[in-house]
Amino acid sequence: MSSPDLTLYTDTAPNGVKITMALEYLGLPYKTVTVSISKLEQKEPWFLEINPNGRIPALVDNTGGKQKKLMESGAILLYLADKYDPEYKLSYPAGSDEYYEVLEWLFWQVGGLGPMQGQTLHFLHYCVSKSPEVRSYGVARYQNETRRLFTVLESRLALQKSTKSSPFLVGDHLSVADLACLGWVLADNFAGIASEDYPLLNEWQDMVSGLEGVKKGLEGYGIKKVGQDPELTKIASEYNSKWIKIQFEEQLKLGQK
């Protein structure tokens, strides 16, 4: 097989670090192009040619001279596992029980934990509405749902510990299911979720974050530290609120056309 020729388009966000963790853990060479979401570079024409949805991350694989463009973090994780993980370091053989369990938890994250926690962060820190009722309803709605989803993860880890003596979400080793969830769980305090309320989940995030490869893939992702420091939280909230407001206004303009 040709040496991998991979380019990752990303920024330091929960969905972006999923891919850097996977690439580093698998020991794959790759180039990184920073797409600054605070400057709305993800909406620029050059990036929309790579990912028409205008979101990070995106991956371009030019291995062997044949180009493949991928969007959506879950799809990228599955692609890397299928094509570049023959030793099943982050995956399980197709058709096995563990293979389908990985799919379950990966889809659970991209369809539930990510969107719900993302909305929690929006209403808690970046809401552009001047109505306190809108903000308080949004925070309560999405924060409560995020807590429910954290409880689901806590229960899963308890089951794994009791039945398989495993600290991972699926099977007996790290998988893309763990990596898909980790970036969001690390944002627990930033989302107003007390990590001490979920002891197994707290142990899991510390353990997985410290694994060789995963740790390197998380470099520059300081969401945990930000969430634990009120002053850093305030700074991050104010900074992100500015560009999110600009993006919101741009979306309103598009909707009026």
From TrEMBL:
Pfam families xref list: GST_C, GST_N
Residue stretches making up the GST C-terminal domain: 95-232
Gene3D superfamilies: 1.20.1050.10, Glutaredoxin (3.40.30.10)
Domain of life from the UniProt record: Eukaryota
InterPro entries: Glutathione-S-Trfase_C-like, Glutathione-S-Trfase_C_sf, Glutathione_S-Trfase, Glutathione_S-Trfase_N, GST_C, Thioredoxin-like_sf
Family per record: Belongs to the GST superfamily.
Record's protein name: Glutathione S-transferase
Organism of this sequence: Myxozyma melibiosi
